[in-house]
Amino acid sequence: MRNFLGVIVVIQGLGGFVARVFFDTEFGLLRRWFDIPTPAYLAIAAAGVALLIWSDHDRQNKEN
């Protein structure tokens, strides 16, 4: 489940950042709920990557 959420968060973060910087528009569900500054989208994407790494690390520990 963490993998799925991590991927969604990365897509929302990177999509929101790219849409604002290169296309001067909004992207994703976060824009509907919050007014987020552009650099915060990169932090959201980084949180998604951290979630993916945490999930992968947890899965490797369970296999051992």
What would your notes on this structure say?
The chain crosses the membrane at residues 36-54. The chain has one domain. Helix 1 (2-22) runs antiparallel to helix 3. With 64 residues, the chain is mainly α. It has 3 helices and no strands. The protein is 80% helix and 0% strand.
**Gap between N and C termini, in Å?**
20 Å
Into which percentage range does the β-strand content fall?
Answer: under 5%
- Class per helix and strand makeup: mainly alpha
Rg, nearest Å: 14 Å
Low-confidence stretches: none
Number of E-type strands? 0
* Major pleated sheet: none
Separate helix tally: 3
Q: How many structural units, i.e. domains?
A: 1
Q: Please state the average pLDDT score.
A: 91
The topology string of helices and strands comes to: HHH
Helix content, binned percent: over 70%
- Tell me the overall shape: elongated
In short:
This protein is mostly helical and about 60 residues long. The chain has three helices and no strands. Helix content is about 80%, strand content about 0%.
Please give a handful of descriptors for the protein shown:
mainly alpha; 64 residues; single chain
How is the secondary structure organized here?
Elements: H1 2-22, H2 30-33, H3 38-63
Keywords: Membrane, Transmembrane, Transmembrane helix
Transmembrane segments: 36-54
